[in-house]
Design a protein that fits this description.
Layout lengths: L1 H67 L2 H4 L7 E2 L4 E9 L5 E12 L22 E12 L2 E12 L1
Parallel strand pairs: 1-3
Antiparallel strand pairs: 2-3, 3-4, 4-5
């Protein structure tokens, strides 16, 4: 009888070892999935941050370009900024992500003359209201881009006066 009881005890131990291995494997797989999800979430937020930094740099460069754009070309027909309400639209490359993915955006530009500009400079001012013949233009640049299916817009307005 005692021999028979020892065999049953061994069989229970063998069966419990198999269950322990299966549970350990299940826990290991669960921890792996949780770690993978956390890694994906962390890299997604890094992607958003990198793209925000790239677009910030691009719109800052655009603002600097508007500040140094030759004044004679601002009011010309060949200006990079269309006369409001028209808009000049172009697709630009803002930068590249690690791994080579291109970050693209749409750049919209328009220029608005000051209402006190003389008629030759797009305004309705007169020699009485504007005796110095000063000329002022607002150069507006708008960068539209998408990150993770959400559309974002960054704008800069540069006031140029002469």
């Amino acid at each position: 009888m005692r021999i028979h009881q020892k065999n049953r005890t061994r069989e229970k131990q063998r069966g419990s070892a198999l269950i322990e291995i299966a549970l350990s494997y299940s826990v290991l797989v669960l921890v792996a999935f949780i770690t993978l999800k956390a890694t994906i979430n962390a890299s997604a937020s890094q992607t958003w941050t990198v793209q925000q930094s790239m677009t910030d740099a691009y719109i800052t460069q655009e603002s600097a370009f508007a500040s140094r754009y030759p004044f004679d070309e601002i009011s010309s027909d060949g200006s990079l900024w269309a006369l409001y309400p028209d808009v000049t639209t172009s697709t630009v490359t803002v930068g590249r992500m690690p791994g080579g993915g291109e970050v693209a955006a749409t750049l919209h530009r328009t220029r608005i003359p000051d209402s006190n500009n003389l008629a030759s400079a797009g305004g309705s001012g007169t020699a009485t209201t504007n005796p110095g013949g000063t000329e002022a233009w607002k150069l507006q640049s708008m960068l539209v881009y998408t990150v993770a299916d959400k559309e974002y817009v960054k704008t800069r307005t540069t006031l140029r006066i002469r």
